[in-house]
2-isopropylmalate synthase (Gluconacetobacter diazotrophicus), 524 residues
Amino acid sequence: MTIDHPSFGRIDNDRVIIFDTTLRDGEQSPGFSMNLAEKLRMAEALAELGVDVIEAGFPVASKGDFDSVHQIASHIRAPVICALARSGGRNDIASAGEAIRPAARGRIHNFISTSPLHMKYKLRMEPETVLELITAGNQAARQFTDDVEWSAEDGSRTDPDFLCRCVEAAIKAGATTINIPDTVGYATPEDMARIFADLLARVPGADTVIFSAHNHNDLGLGVANTIASLSAGARQIECTINGIGERAGNAALEEIVMALRTRQDVLPYSTGIKTQNLLRTSRMLATITGFDVQPNKAIVGRNAFAHESGIHQDGVLKNAATYEIMTPESVGWTRSSLVLGKHSGRAAFRDKLKAMGYGEMDEAHLNDAFARFKDLADRKKVVYDEDLVALVDDEARDHARIRFVSLDIEAGSRRPARADLALEVDGEARSATVTGQGPVDAAFNAVREIFPHEATLQLYSVGAVTEGSDAQARTTVRLEEDGKLVDGQGADSDTLVSAVRAYVHALNKLLVKRTRAEPEAMTA
């Protein structure tokens, strides 16, 4: 079976469309935030990865969201650029249509809740009103683009007969992709397979559209539910890098793609993903958001191809296939013997970063990172790969308005600690000398003196990047302001410097959060 689609042409039945929502659903994760420059960098990485659709944001949410979608639509040419809108939102469809106007291929993704629970308590609408809005929303979206997607929010908990009526209405009104989300991560694989099989069998015109699965991970079943959806007829999957997203997150792109690639015997589907870019894209997202991937994360966690058990090590040495079902190189891991030290030059430093899965850094960030590496190499006996990851991740973040310059601390048990801090704020050099109950308190007081704000410190956590008394410290700082949470990270061989870097990173993210509004029914 083949389907003719306005953006992709004729699509074979074994082709799976990868719809990435890292920049929309992913950014709704508590503590996550990206500014325009960071979103553009991430969109470029997603395009290089080979995703088919980038959901770039929710334009009506704020001017910042609109600008992000518009700029991505203007600069990213290969993937379809998608904007989210509520089916019944007063200005949603028009805002989304204007935001994607520069795109080579643009999509409007409109949604409305369809479950009894959501219709009664959130929408406070009767089913017939919801059906009317589905028709109106999709017809309005078709005025801007031929590529229209409709989602049944809380679709997995929707009455099957009513869901069929909703999907039929959306198709008749011009939707070309139908998405059935497991919005709250409640479904099992059997549930999702039944839903898609039922819709394909019962809804008139179902064979003319692409069905899509968007599974949240509240019960840890996001990837399993997505694979079950594919087996039942869905041909688009909505996912995020590293599985980020609301609450427990979304189905992880890297896990789904490698499951399809590794298990062709039972999952005979193809994607356009360049899998060797998976690790690089994962690391870029972790760098931008300040949220590290857990070590045991499938595919991109640092332990994904590590073997400590003697039996496992022996087997891998004899034949890697004994305990590795895919090669590390297939997802971007490399085994490099290049060791860096204080005599290493810029070329070796750049090559090492590429071998570790990092893409090209701009010259300014590369220069700053190299300078910090040389300083670190002078102070440490051994510079580990983990040291480089911490250092480069810290330097590569886009410190939009506030940048760390220098810190001097005087502290002891007989007098209050004193911090001499220098920051750059909007390009202007500023400094302050402030005391505190201890060196960290003094340093954070100095930040507040230079850049006054009302955010409160919710978390301060310090860990060592590697072993040894000369190890770099990696610090996490969480700030809260008006219910908005942001996490920042910093790394340095000086624990206090790493703390200030983390605080500054969090503060920059908070400044981005301040510009965002959240219309009702954000999730899709």
Remarks:
- The longest strand covers residues 402-410.
- DSSP finds 16 helices and 16 strands in the chain.
- The chain has a mean pLDDT of 89.
